[in-house]
Amino acid sequence: MRGLIFTSSKPPSPSNSFAQTSSMSTHSHHQTFSVSIMEEDLLHAEQIIKRWDLDSPFYTKLDYLFTGDQQEARQFIISVNNLQSAMHFFISENANSEKIIHAQKLMQVAMKRLQKEFYHILSAHRDVLNYVSASVLFSKTRSSDSVSDEDNPSHEYDQITTVMKDLKTIADCMISSGYGKECVNIYKILRKSVVDETMYNLRIEKYSFNQINKMNWNVLELKIKSWLNAVKFAVNSLFSRERMLSDYVFTSSEKIRESCFSEICTERALVLFEFPELVAKSKKSMERMFKTLDLYSAVSDLFPDIETIFEFESVAVVRTQAVTSVVKLGNAVRAMLADFEASIQKETLKTPVTGAGIHPITRYVMNYLLVLIYYTDELSDIVADYPLQLQIQSPVTNLIVNQLIQRK
């Protein structure tokens, strides 16, 4: 019959009713217990965070959380983490709760404090971060776990280990709390200033092709010597260190690690590796041969390290620039060898020698070739694939090149 509603005539089971009531009571008790715990965490976090409120009249402006009692610093970080958990809980319970607004204000206070701490550690300890060599830095900071006494032979190692761990702790906390951007901006600004200053002290400057091409050779030779003295340190100390620093401090985010290293080092690395290319494309003469080979040797020897340090896709342009410089330098050497051959032929025809006499240019050629022997490996790489293009006619030069090819 339409509209007829059938209901059970059997009364509810007392046991079922009791079970439902008991379940509701347990759930309510559990919920109340959870709220109580979160409120306690919120209160405890407030007590600790407020002690380090930058806007509070009760704290000394010269005090720093991470340069004093490490236990206090640990409690602060734990409080922030607990505060974050409490915020998530209260949001799930009631998105309009006043407790959420209160917790957000506390979080802002905490993040403002951590920003100041992060900036202070990076700026106050920049000499410490730059003091230890890249290899030592890597061995001391590759793990966030405690380092044994055996691995800490000096006070400097203890100090840098502490500094690195503090930076990582703050970065992890700020990123997980949604304030990663503020942390990263501070890091990029301060570390980029260190890289810029170091490159300036190494006398690595940016030049245009016209500047290099018009430069007197004596001046350019000094620039090349300065570059050769700086490039190994720049790669194996400066850039390697910055890569390891960003890798360690921002372990929690590969994207942030890459972004930091790229923004801090790419511009200066390009300036560094562009210089050899500009030299290679500038005026060519026999007096420039040996310095060109020195540049070729330096970049070629360092290229495996360059590939490792600048392995990120965002810094591929640095690897490309290094390869371009090597190729251009090789081309320049081949061109100078060809010019050398042509000048020998021209001089021989201009001043013929009769009888069994020795041509005046012979001594010059032999001395020049003897110096080239010191660049056996470099010349082998450069000429091995281009014996036909050189079209070398001089017996002496041909002999030297053939020996280099055979050694290759």
UniProtKB/TrEMBL annotation:
Domain Exocyst complex subunit Exo70 C-terminal as annotated: residue spans: 225-389
GO molecular function, one term: phosphatidylinositol-4,5-bisphosphate binding
GO BP: any one term: exocytosis
Region feature (Disordered): 1-23
GO cellular component terms attached to this protein's record: exocyst
InterPro entries xref list: Cullin_repeat-like_dom_sf, Exo70, Exo70_C
Pfam family, one: Exo70_N
Function: Component of the exocyst complex.
Descriptive protein name: Exocyst subunit Exo70 family protein
Protein species of origin: Helianthus annuus
Classification lineage: Eukaryota, Viridiplantae, Streptophyta, Embryophyta, Tracheophyta
